[in-house]
Design brief:
Elements lengths: L5 E2 L4 E6 L5 E7 L9 H11 L16 E5 L1 E2 L2 E2 L4 E6 L21 H8 L15 H15 L4 E9 L2 E2 L20 H16 L6 E8 L13 H10 L4 E6 L10 H4 L3 E4 L2 E4 L7 E2 L2 E2 L4 E7 L9 E4 L5 E4 L13 H23 L2
Antiparallel strand pairs: 1-2, 2-3, 3-7, 4-7, 5-6, 8-9, 8-10, 10-16, 11-16, 12-13, 14-15, 17-18
């Protein structure tokens, strides 16, 4: 039996810490030696996820400055565990004093209490999305293993009922707006919409798409360690994620066999596909095409509208959650989704190499 704080097989990481504790961190094991790595390589990805960068995310001001405590020497990995620490500097635990005896609907307060008999009510403790900074740090190391030939890019494609126009998809726009949105026109619309949501003290859900390009064919296992099943598990482990689809996903059920088939041809000695309904994975193993997945993030559960709940004594009551919360937690889920995809791909790349020794 394991405690459920670790992820991966050959590339494996374990996170630790709580939202309102002194620090959070991650220990990454299985990284090969002699890979150039410094704090800047990790910080660039943490900065994408960092809170307080726009009015559309939580205003908690955390620099998320990472410190490498072990596993490197003279700017290169040593092959030993890499320990990373991120200090918490802007906790406001007093915001949660009024709800310490109450269970927040939509949160894991009740289930944590039932499992452990104790819970950290300050921002959710271990259940807080603050933990995902550790995943992003691990993902930065995973990207170093994957190398420059494999790119992993995420984008927000829907907020609430408002979808992007895919005919206007431009990856260059993703870094130019607060939403990681590839559609400049839709991003401008989201600005107005989320301002209204925030003023009401409410929240809204989102859908994120992640595309991994340059992935070689052959990653994954045919039965229980399928690449797509590991990706789905990785994404579903992210806070507030309620659904994952790969390739056409649920839409594949509406297609005929002819429509869903990704026809193949040999062109100048290389296999090419006419389409990518499968999302780059066949039989649990990568095909060499782009790996495409999407995941749905529910609305932030912490809202200013009073909700019905119960307290720790089982009495009916109302709750209103104060504090600094994302009106759409899906925005900052984009770099988290990228990180988890990177970790799974790095793990399977190392496993494929090991199988051919």
């Amino acid at each position: 039996m394991t405690a459920g704080n670790s992820f991966g097989t050959l590339f494996r990481f374990t996170t630790w810490g709580e939202s309102h504790g002194p620090a959070i961190g991650v220990v990454v094991d299985g990284c090969p030696s002699l890979i150039p790595l410094d704090e800047g390589d990790i910080q660039q990805f943490l900065d994408k996820r960092r809170p307080g960068q726009s009015r559309h995310t939580t205003q908690r001001q955390e620099p998320d400055a990472v410190k490498i405590l072990s596993g490197t020497f003279e700017g290169k990995t040593t092959g030993t565990p890499i320990s990373l620490m991120i200090e918490n500097v802007d906790q406001r635990s007093k915001d949660y004093g009024d709800i310490k005896e109450k269970y927040r609907p939509g949160h894991a307060d009740y289930t944590y209490q039932m499992k452990y008999g104790i819970r950290d009510y300050r921002g959710g403790g271990r259940q807080s999305a603050r933990e995902t900074a550790c995943r992003v740090a691990a993902g930065a190391i995973a990207r170093k293993i994957l190398g420059n030939g494999i790119s992993i890019r995420g984008a927000l494609v829907q907020i609430g009922t408002h979808k992007i126009d895919r005919s206007r998809w431009d990856w260059n726009e993703v870094e130019k707006n607060d939403f990681f949105c590839p559609d400049k026109t839709t991003a401008a619309h989201w600005e107005t919409m989320l301002d209204d949501v925030r003023k009401k003290g409410s929240s809204v859900g989102a859908i994120i798409e992640v595309v991994a390009s340059g992935v070689p064919a052959g990653l994954g296992e045919p039965i229980y360690d399928k690449l797509d099943s590991d990706l789905a598990r990785a994404i579903m482990s992210i806070n507030a994620v309620k659904a994952v689809e790969i390739g056409d996903g649920f839409s594949a059920a509406t297609l005929s066999g002819e429509e869903n088939s990704d026809d193949m041809r040999n062109i100048n000695g290389a296999v090419e596909f006419a389409s990518n309904h499968a999302g780059g994975i066949l039989g649990g193993i990568s095909s060499g095409q782009d790996i495409v997945l999407r995941f749905a993030v529910k609305p932030t559960s912490s809202i200013l509208t009073p909700r019905n709940t119960v307290n720790q004594d089982g009495q009916n009551t109302e709750i209103l959650t104060k504090g600094r919360h994302d009106p759409c937690v899906g925005i900052r889920a984009v770099p988290i989704g990228e990180a988890m995809v990177a970790c799974v791909l790095a793990d399977h790349l190392l496993r494929m190499r090991a199988s051919k020794c």
